[in-house]
Design a protein that fits this description.
4-stranded antiparallel β-sheet; alpha+beta; 13 helices; about 625 residues
């Protein structure tokens, strides 16, 4: 080896150790940087002077030329990255769900003395008091006051639930914008990374930024990442569709939905198709808005509508002390003014649907009497139609219970006169209106004849909401038009009663056409509604409804909390494993700096020695 080759060898060693020290310093500087991956300089032996060919000099072995920097790489475990991305979406889902379910629990778990249940208990007690003193104006004043406080607290709970739903919708809009921003930034990083790699370099810091953004994206929506080193392709999928491919990315937008209380759906911007997410924060938000909170509002609406309808049904048939009858205790607001329930649903100017909430049969039934008939009822449900068979040995109460457990969106019960009542419930499908009976059909004679609901058996005698004047198939049964949406938001006491407590009825009209002063039958009937099986949604009584509602939201909260704690533990363990590989250990970096410093000093000493040797040969031999 020539002397000057040795200096070049020493120079390479100086540069290699200097770069190693600089990289270790870069690691230490970024020890607190989120998403940073520690880097290492890979040193390789430089190519020897002589290659194994026929032109090589006859020397004893290959002569080495020192060290060179092969590459600077990140210490990253891609398998761990894949597992973290696969679990972070679940963490984002349960974090979001847990926080909002806690808000829903607060709405239900208000101080006991101002909750809907306690106010309703006071309402029943006021009517019970009126039944004891039917001539008392003071008792009527209590009924009016407690009705007002009950109405206020129902409005308050509705506004609380609606406020949380609006909050969730705002969070959905913000999250969609965040997703669009992150995918755009990842696409730009992909373009920069490809350019740097094309020059033969490793853009470690850029890849750290991309990995950090990808992990952030995985907390918002469920994604999978496909990386191909051969063509530097970096593709992110969600719901089986590409959202990022190289330097291009797709975005999400909003599309108004009249069926979903005018809340906008999340759609793909380019196609307009509805976007589906399985996990992540956005999936949790959409599920909360369109399922959980909507369901809580539907339950409150169901309770309110049944409450208003049942109290009005008794009070309308009763007589007040001033001799008035036919007065609704609560003011009802109907979806349409058409008394037949006819409505133009598709907006073409012609009535094409029937919006009927309640149908009451004409015949008085004995709940313990065997039907003596066989057939099958066909009722509307959340996903089509459901069939309810009945047999000759069934009692009336058996069939009523079977209807209510069938999964249909029609509730059944016997009213105070033991007449069969069928009511429309809130609809599971957002495209169907709430409190509308959509289909009733009987292959036998239970509805057509026995209970006095339909005029004719079979498909030709079926009631179906998909046409105008659908009530013409009823056998003289009474019916009520469907209310406008969200009765828990608009219910109020009849102004006639609010202005004059003498319009509050406690008894019924006697044979002489007037109510006896001490008649308390109407007050007792209203007080008895509290524990009467009247099917408030899927609950038999109002007390059952409140118990089921509080229990269900409590179980949802418990599930969210437990699942969140589980996901936190899983993600923490994976992050700890990744940090052990990719995280910066300052003690280790300082140790490496000392090692590289010794190498640098030794290399410098080597160059100094070679310099002295050259100086001796050139300047001191005296040749």
């Amino acid at each position: 080896m020539a002397a000057f080759d040795a200096i070049e060898l020493g120079k390479r060693s100086l540069f290699a150790h200097q770069q190693s020290i600089q990289t270790a310093g870069h690691n230490i500087s970024n020890s607190s940087t989120k998403g940073y991956t520690r880097q290492r300089v890979n040193l390789d032996a430089f190519e020897p002077i002589y290659r194994p060919d026929l032109s090589r000099a006859e020397t004893p072995g290959q002569i080495g030329q020192g060290v060179t920097i092969g590459s600077i790489t990140r210490l990253r475990d891609e398998l761990l990255d894949t597992r973290i991305i696969g679990t972070t979406d679940d963490l984002g889902y349960w974090e979001t769900r847990n926080s909002y379910i806690a808000l829903l629990e607060q709405v239900h778990n208000e101080p006991e003395d101002i909750s809907v249940r306690s106010r309703m208990d006071q309402f029943w007690e006021a009517w019970q008091e009126l039944s004891l003193y039917p001539e008392s104006d003071a008792a009527r004043q209590v009924v009016r006051t407690r009705t007002e406080t009950l109405t206020d607290v129902i409005h308050h709970q509705f506004k609380g639930l609606q406020g949380i739903r609006d909050m969730v919708h705002g969070d959905i809009e913000a999250t969609v914008k965040q997703v669009n921003d992150i995918t755009g930034r990842i696409a730009k990083l992909n373009e920069e990374i490809v350019k740097v790699k094309a020059m033969g370099d490793n853009p470690n810091d850029l890849m750290d930024k991309r990995d950090l953004l990808t992990e952030k994206l995985s907390s918002l929506i469920d994604i999978s990442v496909d990386k191909r080193d051969e063509d530097e392709t970096y593709v992110i999928h969600t719901a089986g569709l590409e959202i990022v491919q190289g330097r291009t990315h797709r975005t999400f937008d909003f599309k108004a939905s009249l069926e979903n209380d005018k809340y906008a759906d999340v759609v793909w911007s380019d196609s307009g198709n509805l976007a589906h997410f399985e996990s992540g924060k956005l999936a949790a938000l959409i599920e909360l808005r369109d399922v959980d909170i909507r369901d809580e509002i539907r339950k409150l609406d169901t309770m309110t509508m049944n409450f208003v309808d049942l109290v009005n049904d008794v009070h309308r048939n009763a007589m007040s002390p001033n001799g008035k009858t036919g007065i609704d205790f609560f003011k009802e607001q109907y979806f349409i003014n058409n008394t037949l329930g006819n409505f133009d649903r598709n907006g073409d100017g012609e009535e094409d649907s029937s919006y009927i909430f309640r149908i009451t049969g004409t015949n008085t039934l004995d709940p313990r009497e065997q039907i003596g008939l066989e057939g099958t009822l066909t009722l509307s449900s959340g996903d089509g139609l459901v069939q309810v068979p009945y047999y000759s040995t069934d009692m009336v109460s058996d069939l009523v219970e079977r209807i209510n457990r069938s999964g249909s969106e029609v509730a059944a019960y016997l009213d105070q006169n033991n007449k069969l009542v069928l009511k429309g419930m809130t609809s599971l499908d957002k495209e169907n209106p709430d409190f509308v009976i959509r289909h009733i059909e009987d292959s036998g004679r239970f509805l057509a004849g026995y209970s006095g609901v339909l005029s004719q058996a079979g498909p030709e005698g079926a009631y179906d909401w998909g046409r105008a004047n659908a009530v013409d198939v009823l056998a003289g049964a009474q019916y009520a038009v469907s209310p406008i949406a969200h009765p828990s938001g608009w219910m109020e006491m009849n102004p006639v009663i609010k202005s004059d407590i003498q319009n509050i009825a406690s008894g019924y009209k006697g044979p002489e056409g007037v109510a006896y002063p001490g008649d308390n039958r109407a007050a007792l009937a209203i007080a008895a509604i509290r524990n009467t099986p009247v099917m408030v949604g899927r609950s038999a009584t109002f007390d059952d409804f409140f118990a089921d509602t509080v229990t269900e939201i409590g179980l949802k909260g418990e599930q969210a909390e437990m699942s969140l704690n589980t996901q936190i533990a899983i993600v923490k363990e994976l992050h700890d494993m990744r940090d052990s590989v990719s995280g910066v250990n300052i003690d280790e970096e300082l140790s490496d700096i000392i090692k590289f410093q010794h190498g640098y000093n030794a290399s410098a000493r080597f160059v100094s020695v070679i310099n002295e040797m050259i100086d001796t040969v050139i300047n001191r031999l005296g040749v």
